[in-house]
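re: ur question from earlier - yeah i can do the single chain one, its not a big deal. heres the input i used so u can compare w yours
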Amino acid sequence: MSSSLSAFRVCVMGRIHKVIPLLTVVVFVLLHVFAYPSTRFANDSYRYARSAYEFLGDPHRKAQDKALRAYCADTAAMLQRNRMLHQIDFRDPVRRNEFQDCLAQYADGLNPSNPRYEALFHARPAYPLLAAPFVWLLGAKAGLTAVALGFTALGGLLVLVLLRALRAPPPVAWLGQCLYYVTPIGLWGSRPMTEGPVLALMVAMLLGAVWLCQGRRAAGALLSVGAFALGFAVKYSSFVLVGPCLAAAGALALMFVPRARHKGTRCLLIVSLFESLVAFAMSRVLRLPGLEASLQDTFTLHWTYAEVTNPWRLLVRLDANYWWQWLQTEALAPSLLLLLVLGAWGAMSRSVPIALCLIALGGTGLLTSAAHPVAMEGDRLYVQVWLIVVVGLPLLVERLRMSGGSSDALPARSDPLMKSDGRR
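and the output i got, formated as tokens:
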């Protein structure tokens, strides 16, 4: 009788562990549907919407007009929301003619319209291509948001799978999924821009790295290369950094972690180097805008000013100002810095090679901010660093929970690693 009851209890708990992550996704999506009017259809969103309409077959001018109408409608709605909060205007928040004024002001399209600035978005075709059917069905803002939100929901589930692959129990893995949704990853990932797909695909590459380190070489390589290929088409400037960073993590693991010297880690290094070479070759063959163009974009305010002759020297000076003031701001409420330390500690306590991969992937956000030290966009540009918190903090919670029990229950530091012949 007791054995039957135990079996029934195990069956019920197994079903609950499968249902709760899906219910979490539903709650996450419903919250963002409720918050949808507060999201902004930004200048970048306008350009992705225009590309989506072009993929649907509209001529450039017609696609531009449709995207502009979506932008102006959202701008007018935002101004109306602001009036409803104004101490005087909220008493009689009459709608004004902002929509028509916006259409008249940008009759030739939103600024900036420099061809070099437009080239930055032409090199990101995958997001508007994936969103095109949803844009046709739901409209520009809703269609782009649906794709971004879908990728963000998927990213949380991938975090759950990743933590389970690291042998975290279901409640701890679910905590990682929740953190993915409630941190700035969920905020920026649900906007009608590329952050949602970029972050989810980076998590997929991290999961591929975990599988490679565990000896699942074919599955890990396929997942990593597939996520990299799609991510490169979504936003190449982000994924051109991922390959070298993961390659550096693999090399460090091979050099300094004796138990990581097996075929899985070597495969991680080879796959990462392959992705780095492909990114470099594709950038050259397709003549994608490089870092020089990105710096000119920064220091000419999207080519609305004349190009500068010494962008690298200006970058060093601006970075010095930016990071010093960033540290001063963080010092007032250093929650991010504290969480990053705790996340890195949790990941290191479980597996040093995986922690190196996690820190390398999160570090791409800091590299992006260093290349674009724009204060008003900082938290969006370095949003990848929150992956260290999302994955590492649940591992630390599990570590501390286990330390409260018997010391024999503590997992070994290299526990999730597996030798290339399948032995743990």
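Residues 406-424 have pLDDT under 50 and may be disordered. not sure if urs matches, ping me
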